[in-house]
UniProtKB/TrEMBL annotation, chain A:
Protein name per the record: (Fe-S)-binding protein
Pfam families: CCG
Record-annotated Cysteine-rich domain positions: 3-83, 123-207
Origin species: Streptomyces albipurpureus
From TrEMBL, chain B:
Lactate utilization protein B C-terminal domain: residues covered: 395-470
Alphabetized InterPro entries for the sequence: 4Fe4S_Fe-S-bd, 4Fe4S_Fe_S_CS, FTHF_cligase-like_sf, Helical_ferredxn, LUD_dom, LutB/LldF, LutB_C, NagB/RpiA_transferase-like
Domain LUD: 73-298
Native source organism of the sequence: Streptomyces albipurpureus
Gene3D superfamilies tied to this protein: Alpha-helical ferredoxin, NagB/RpiA/CoA transferase-like
Domain 4Fe-4S ferredoxin-type: 315-384
Keywords: 4Fe-4S, Electron transport, Iron, Iron-sulfur, Metal-binding, Repeat, Transport
Name of protein: Lactate utilization protein
């Protein structure tokens, strides 16, 4: 099977390790991965900020970049939600049907929940809002994590509450955003897990920024990086420290 | 990020003040989390919740599509059953109609049933200017009125107060409004309720005029419906001689049968009860029973403008259950007052800018007072897609923006252009990563971010470049 990786602009520029992990994971599962170099941003920041025309340009651009692919896989719940929910309203109806968030692709298309990963750490999972409510990912990410050898999953209290990132909300309403994030970090710390995992690096940029500012003993980590780790090629914190 | 960014001014500043009030934050957190859990339980009991939600949405959409027809039908039915219907185009109009009606009775006091519409038009203040005192009889409204405060929640206007604060307000303020609080009043819920009961009983027995709103109006029969928990509404709706109801035009439903849906969803979503304690329904007047003089003031006050907006009009489906407030993480932290309107929380953020327009700083900032997490849409019993309307209103604010907002528009256009040209993006990324050692820790443009958070560290190489090196 051949898929196009839609790495997303945030991962491309700030979290290449997530993109690399996604490629590693998919290839290990026998999938051929392409990276159409024309891809950039799905247009969500523009759309959500009220710049509809700017967003429409990026919608057309993104649709063209992935026109040749039957499966487009992205390690971001919120970008997948943008394509799936908003693209039809912005005039693009084909790409939404071919776009899958990573955990959705693994569970629904490949029908795999045990990806053969190894990660000997305690993990708590934050289900980002767009994955949870817009895409309806349900327990897919947690099922995948549950099957990881050595991983102990700790339930996150108040898991379904927003972390407070919200794109430009994080700067336009910085005080409320930070207050929400602090509560989320507090609840993650209360699980005493080593790792705070999510399927969206935008939430983790915000939460990671708080964790580092407050010097909490918690490592924010994208689910792809956990699922890509194996006993032969374990996750090496030093290598990917951010 | 400069201060000219859209949505920066009013809400964020008001929210900052609220965030620093630790008592308020604790009160709100406790109250919203308690209601949230109970509501989830009450809804989980319904096997047909999704169908009820869909039916509620459809009934409201149908009614709004034929609003003209149903309002005329309602007027006819109310008139035939002995009531008088008045049409108020805006707040001033409605206030004048009500003040004239009260003056015609020769009374200078009225009792009030909790009503959002009369809050919206500032009726109490307008009546006061005419020498008429309006007494709020809902417990929470009473707390707000005695405390010379503003409501901060649709259903629980005093949600920002805890028991100790309420005790203090009762003790110091009740005497000036009527019967004083009992000596040695404690802050136990039972004691506080009893103090309110004694204080209000006098008012019910004396009042000759009552003012209410309504949760629903049935077009086919001309029946008005008030749904409440305390019984104060029942007192006001039955004891006085004259009853004046001020109701937004969107509260009409076509048939009696339609109430079947809303009387199931409203109590569960608002107070997490299977059924609310008091549902009062009245149709015009009946000789020798209840008010002998009934006036219905139908209020537009911007609603027909909202109706004209194909995306925004869904806000008119709202049945004011307040479930969206209770699940909203922003409301929980910012509190109701930060929204600068009697309609706070997610529904306020989409309703206020539509009713009042987006010209003032606060109204233009409301569509941005959301992380778009979607929790409100998920719980709404009439399926109002609040995030969709928020984004729609952001477009309106951006489109109307003047010189002050140009910085953001230009930046957005530049970024969007670069994003349509991947080679430009790759160069920019490379430039950023190779110069990353030179970046200041706190560039002035990202102050809002770094006030509470660290910036992400730039990686040595973008994914794009890694792919080029390793996968071709
Ligand atoms: S918008 Fe929906 S959830 Fe919010 S108060 Fe109105 S009906 Fe209730």
């Amino acid at each position: 099977m051949r898929v196009a990786l839609f790495v997303t602009c945030v991962n491309d520029a700030l979290f290449p390790a997530t993109g690399i992990a996604t490629v590693t994971l998919l290839e290990r599962l026998g999938v051929t991965v392409d990276f159409p170099a024309a891809q950039t941003c799905c247009g969500q920041p523009q759309f959500n900020s009220g710049y509809r025309r700017a967003a429409e340009g990026l919608v057309r651009h993104t649709a063209r970049a992935f026109a040749a692919y039957e499966y487009v896989v992205t390690p971001s719940g919120s970008c997948a939600a943008m394509v799936r929910e908003q693209y039809p309203r912005l005039g693009e109806t084909s790409l939404p049907k071919r776009t899958y968030e990573l955990t959705e692709f693994l569970v629904d298309v490949l029908h795999i929940t045990d990806v053969g990963a190894y990660f000997p750490h305690t993990v708590t999972y934050h289900p980002s809002c767009h994955g949870l409510r817009t895409l309806g990912l349900g327990d897919r990410p947690r099922r995948l994590l549950h099957a990881v050898k050595g991983l102990e999953l700790r339930e996150l209290p108040g898991a379904d509450e927003c972390c407070g990132f919200g794109g430009t909300f994080a700067v336009k309403n910085a005080d409320v955003s930070v207050a929400m994030g602090q509560d989320k970090v507090r609840s993650a710390v209360s699980t005493r897990a080593d790792v705070l995992c999510a399927a969206d690096n935008s939430c983790l940029t915000h939460l990671g920024g708080l964790i580092r500012r407050q010097q909490e003993p918690l490592r924010p980590l994208h689910i792809a990086e956990i699922l890509s780790a194996t006993e032969q090629h374990p996750y090496l914190p030093a290598e990917l420290t951010r | 990020m400069s201060d000219t960014f859209l949505g920066m001014p009013a809400f964020p500043q008001a929210a900052r003040v609220a965030l620093h009030n630790t008592t308020l934050r604790a009160n709100l957190r406790h109250a919203t989390h308690t209601i949230r859990a109970k509501r989830a339980q009450a809804v989980a009991e319904l096997s047909d919740w999704e169908q009820l939600r869909d039916a509620g949405r459809q009934i409201k959409d149908h009614t709004l599509r034929h609003l003209d027809r149903y309002l005329i039908q309602l007027e006819q039915a109310v008139t035939e059953s002995g009531g008088t219907v008045h049409w108020a185009v805006d707040a001033d109009d409605a206030n004048r109609i009500v003040a004239d009606l009260v003056k015609a009775t020769g009374e200078s006091e009225v009792v009030k049933v909790k009503s959002m519409a009369t809050q919206e038009i500032g009726l109490n203040e307008a009546l006061a200017a005419e020498g008429i005192t309006a007494y709020e009889t809902d417990l929470a409204e009473l707390i707000v009125q005695l405390g010379d405060d503003r409501p901060s929640h649709i259903l629980v206007p005093a949600i920002h107060r805890n028991r100790a604060e309420i005790r203090a307000i009762f003790t110091s303020e009740m005497a000036a409004w009527g019967r004083a609080a009992p000596d040695g009043l404690t802050d136990s819920p039972g004691d506080l309720a009893e103090a309110a009961r004694l204080h209000l009983r006098e008012k019910f027995l004396r009042a000759r005029v009552a003012i209410s709103g309504a949760n629903f109006m049935v077009a086919e029969t001309g029946t008005l419906v008030v749904v409440e928990s305390e019984g104060n509404g029942r007192m006001c709706l039955t004891l006085p001689r004259t009853l004046i109801s001020v109701v937004g035009v969107e509260k009409v439903v076509p048939t009696w049968r339609d109430l079947e849906v809303f009387l199931q969803t409203l109590p569960r979503l608002s107070t997490a009860e299977r059924m609310n304690p008091y549902t009062s329904m009245w149709t015009g007047t009946v000789d020798g029973d209840g008010p002998q003089d009934f006036h219905l003031v139908l209020l537009d006050n911007g609603r027909t403008d909202v109706l004209a907006d194909a995306v925004g009009r869904q806000a008119l489906r709202c049945i004011r259950c307040s479930a969206c407030l209770n699940v909203c993480p922003v409301y929980e932290r910012a509190g109701g007052h930060a929204y600068g309107s009697v309609y706070p929380g997610p529904i306020g953020a989409i309703l206020t800018p539509q009713l009042r327009g987006t010209t003032s700083a606060i109204d233009a900032s409301l569509p941005f007072a959301s992380s778009l997490c979607g929790a409100c849409y998920e719980v709404c019993p009439v399926a109002i897609d609040i995030p969709e309307v928020l984004v729609h209103l952001r477009e309106r604010v951006v489109d109307q923006s003047g010189a002050g907002h140009r910085t953001e528009s230009i930046a957005m256009a530049a970024v969007s252009w670069a994003l349509r040209h991947p080679s430009v993006l790759a160069t920019a990324e490379r430039l950023a990563t190779t110069t990353r050692a030179l970046h200041p820790r706190r560039p002035p443009g990202v102050r809002a971010w770094t006030a509470g958070r660290e910036l992400p560290e730039l990686p040595a190489q973008s994914f794009r470049d890694w792919w080029k090196e390793n996968h071709r």
